Amino acid sequence: KDAYTSGHSIRVSQYAVATAERMGFAGQSLEGIRLGGELHDIGKIGTSETVLHKPGTLTKEEFDQITKHPLLGEKMLSPLAHDSPDVLRIVRSHHERLDGRGYPDGLSGDQAPLPARIVSVVDVFDALTTNRPYRRAIPVEAAYGLLLQQARGGWCEPDLVHLFIDVHRAAHAPAGEDECLSETHGGRGAPVEDGLNSPQQP
Question: Which of 36, 67, 100, 174 has its CA 20 to 30 A from that of 45?
């Protein structure tokens, strides 16, 4: 769809794979996470550029348009259903939440597939730590803290967030280095305090 979405998808795929490897995923299952991470936002092809790049708060109609992208992406990738079912599950379910307040299906607990939950954590982290027209990136350590805060509030499993943080820290700067990953790319979000509950989240 645009340069940001391409870079975002590559980063999500890389860190989802690294996190999944630490959890014991291998072979075809790991390949499904790699491809699912790359394609998780493919349904945004059907979202207007105006909505994707809007600098202000989305209207209800714009929100509804955004929330259609998982189902549209799943439909676009339906030829992969037989050989790569995990890819379709990731694309459909990467916006579900542990507390059932996600979309498109309102799944709760472990109803959302684990590969989709892994991609969800990395997806939100990348959104928080990169710039977009409607929100500045936040520092990496602040993003770690926000992920844990929201996980404890019902977004996802805190243990999964802790594992991702360990993986990310091992691959990047020492813990405590207060810098953003990028000055030019980012993910859809409301003000940081509400980002994980917002319809504007990626």
Answer: 100
Percent of the chain with pLDDT over 70: 84
Q: Can you tell me whether residue 165 is helix, strand or coil?
A: helix
Tell me the pLDDT of the chain averaged across its residues: 86
Are 124 and 187 within 8 A, CB to CB?
A: yes
Query: For the chain, what are the domain ranges?
Result: 3-197
Amino acid at residue number 195: G
> The tokens of 156 are what?
């996802």
pLDDT at 1: 52
Residues serving a catalytic function are 44
- Grouping H, G, I as helix, E, B as strand and the rest as coil, residue 130 is coil
Task: Output phi, psi for 135, to 5 deg.
Answer: -165, 140
- Integer Cα distance of 155 and 36 in angstroms: 20
On whether the 3-197 domain is CATH 1.10.3210.10, my answer is yes
Quick one: CA torsion of 23, 28, 33, 39, rounded to 10 degrees?
Answer: 180
Q: What is the C-alpha separation between 153 and 155, in angstroms, rounded?
A: 6
Average pLDDT over residues 85-105: 97
In Å, the largest CA–CA distance within the chain is 44
- pLDDT tens per residue, range 104-147: 999 999 999 999 999 999 999 999 999 877 788 999 999 999 99
